[in-house]
Amino acid sequence: MRRQRRRAVIMLAGLMNAFLGTNIGYSAGIIHLGLLEKHKKSPNVVFWAGALFSSLLCLAGPISSVAVNALSCRSTIFLGSFLSFVGFMVSSFVSSIEIVVFCYGIVAGLGQSMIYSGTVLATGFHFHDNPSVATGVVVAGAGMGVAVFPMFTEFLIETYGIDGTFLLLSAVSLQVVVFNMCIETHELENNRKETSMTFKMKVELIFQELRKIFSMGAYLQFCISIFCWSTSVNTSVLLLPQYYVSTGSSHTEAAILMSLYGITGCFSRILTGLAASDPRVDGKLLYMGSYIILGLSTFFLPLIGNYFPGKVFYSLMLGIYSSNVWSLLTPITIEIVGIQQMPTAFGMELLIGGIGFLIGPIIGGFLYVLAGIFEMLMILTMTKSESFQNRNNMEKTVEVEEKLISNNVIEVKQLHD
């Protein structure tokens, strides 16, 4: 009973860490407007500040994994909170946009990544026997910020300006330290470390783990699927408000529709974690099935997207079936590579997802310029890779994916013609 209470405290502390330490990224657009107001002569440089801050949550995954391997999950969260605090605080006192790009975009962005990775990995260690529910609760904390932090940040900017906002956000980031005190270093983390190892030996060990995990066909194909969904889903989410407005909705209606996406995504992460915790339910089946349903919903969006009820339906489907993947990454990763290689594998998954988040909108923008219609962008959502239950069905799954991609290429050509 005592162990269960301790794990419950760790899970709730992880939820608060994710809520306070990783949700500021949802306010990047609001902060961007505040920076533009202050630095009107440098709009291109201001863009890099928000882009780096948002992307580093995933792109800095390998760096966060190195910190976890070298230190511990708890120490990594402390370090991330300190970096976020310093990045935001310095940004509030400087007048140079270049320094803001470095402090806010890179330093604070790296801190956010360390908080997220350390929190999720700590949850994975403490709930390694059944991580689905705990991971779902923790990542739900990261999803709650969709409805809270943009409005909170807008209030701060209107009341205190962008400099005062940075200063107060630094205080918010520092609150992670309070909840991180409740997270213990698990014995599995201690077993992974050898105090006699030099830094060079630790680096060599990390590269050995990378070679080992990427030699696993299931993990390699799992990473390919992560790249596919991160590329396509981020494109859809980024351009969806513009699509809603272009089909007759007001800006207020578009904001409401995107709020529905965020709220349903939060509940989806918890419910998916509960479902995956059932030993009779295969997490990989949930992972694959979610994107099959989302792909079909996106395929029919041009038919229902001109009507407000259809837009509500699609926003709900997008929130339910695109957000739940964050609850499944940890249990699927543990199942494929094992608990010992989980930190390194999880860091690479975040890196691959971050690359997809970056290049997806670029590809989507190119297709929109090429074709001039939003429907072509949504076809990207159909190109979802699937992870595999074991090595015996890998070849069959690859054939299915090749057929899906081939069908998408034909569909794009038909729309272009």
Automatic annotation (TrEMBL):
Pfam families: MFS_1
Keyword DNA-binding appears in the UniProt entry: no
Record-annotated membrane-spanning stretches: 12-33, 45-68, 75-93, 99-121, 133-152, 164-183, 218-244, 256-276, 288-308, 314-338, 350-374
Recorded GO MF terms: monocarboxylic acid transmembrane transporter activity
Keywords noted in UniProt: Membrane, Transmembrane, Transmembrane helix
Signal sequence extent: none
PANTHER family membership: MFS DOMAIN-CONTAINING PROTEIN (PTHR11360:SF260), MONOCARBOXYLATE TRANSPORTER (PTHR11360)
Protein name per the record: Monocarboxylate transporter 12
